[in-house]
């Protein structure tokens, strides 16, 4: 665990650094990615080396839904094992990254469209730690989570994200964590080990999502229900899609768009991830 002495360097006010941190949407997939060494996790490791080391990471995860908006504000968030039926090795993982009450307060102060509550009970769910432990294995970067208000519309989430833009200027990496295509009821469980297997409808809508992202047509992505049957199959419930809207809401006018881990898994899931910047 990071020592209290080392932690003190995380408590100073954030300063603008003259550059913009990129913004990420991470297809996090199975919790097993938290302990596996595969093509997806290897890319997460490479990515961390390719971008500036952040002063903190703020994650919007599909796995923290709340009534109202909350942000973790403890010194050391706990590791949450919010899943079942997996090997004990996965439950044994403790990712002991620090948090930052100060950065939590600064983040909350930027949000004018909602009252953001300081949270001392949540921690880091698997949408956060299974990815970040590969990126920053020494757990030496503060990690915070911002919840998703499940009572609000897609447009609300997109607009709220825009209010966080200034964090990019201050060295904070903002990360949405979910999956563009996420239909667990239709998973071909016998093909989960095939990292290139997607149903026709899943590949089609995933390609549509990418085209809209590449061309900046965020309005159509916000109104995803209007994209037809394939979109409704891809997003039977919205929690894994909402983090993408947070990422897109943070796009700047000069940001490049790139995709990685662009593969389907189990027929009805895609790992497709996005970097803006």
TrEMBL record:
Name of the protein: 4,5-DOPA dioxygenase extradiol
Organism superkingdom: Bacteria
Pfam family, one: LigB
All residue ranges annotated as the Extradiol ring-cleavage dioxygenase class III enzyme subunit B domain in the record: 36-254
Organism ancestry: Bacteria, Pseudomonadati, Bacteroidota, Cytophagia, Cytophagales
Gene source species: Pontibacter flavimaris
InterPro entries, per the entry: Extradiol_dOase_DODA, Xdiol_dOase_suB
Molecular function, one GO term: oxidoreductase activity, acting on single donors with incorporation of molecular oxygen, incorporation of two atoms of oxygen
Keywords from the named record: Dioxygenase, Metal-binding, Oxidoreductase, Zinc
Cofactor: Zn(2+)
Keyword match Lipid biosynthesis: no
Family according to the record: Belongs to the DODA-type extradiol aromatic ring-opening dioxygenase family.
SUPFAM superfamilies to which the protein is assigned, alphabetical: LigB-like
Cell membrane keyword on record: no
């Amino acid at each position: 665990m990071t020592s209290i002495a080392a932690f003190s360097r995380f408590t100073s006010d954030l300063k603008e650094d003259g550059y913009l941190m990129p913004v990420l949407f991470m297809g996090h997939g199975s919790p097993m990615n938290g302990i596996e060494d595969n093509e997806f996790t290897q890319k997460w490791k490479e990515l961390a080396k390719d971008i500036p080391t952040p002063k903190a990471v703020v994650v919007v995860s599909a796995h923290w839904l709340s009534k109202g908006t909350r942000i973790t504000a403890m010194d050391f968030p706990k590791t949450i094992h919010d899943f079942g039926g997996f090997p004990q090795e996965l439950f044994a993982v403790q990712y002991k990254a620090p948090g930052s009450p100060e950065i939590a307060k600064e983040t909350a102060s930027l949000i004018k469209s909602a009252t953001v509550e300081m949270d001392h009970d949540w921690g880091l769910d698997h949408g956060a730690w299974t990815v970040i432990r590969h990126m920053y294995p020494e757990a030496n970067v503060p990690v915070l989570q911002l919840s998703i208000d499940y009572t609000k519309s897609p447009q609300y989430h997109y607009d709220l994200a825009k209010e966080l833009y200034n964090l990019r200027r201050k060295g904070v990496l903002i990360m949405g964590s979910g999956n563009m295509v996420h239909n667990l009821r239709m998973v071909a469980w016998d093909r989960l080990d095939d990292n290139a297997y997607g149903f026709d409808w899943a590949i089609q809508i995933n390609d549509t999502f990418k085209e809209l992202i590449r061309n900046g047509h965020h309005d159509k992505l916000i109104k995803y229900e209007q994209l037809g049957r394939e979109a409704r199959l891809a997003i039977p419930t919205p929690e894994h899609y909402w983090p993408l809207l947070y990422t897109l809401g943070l796009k700047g006018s000069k940001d490049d768009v790139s995709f990685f881990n662009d593969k389907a898994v189990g027929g009805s899931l895609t790992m497709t991830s996005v970097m803006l910047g």
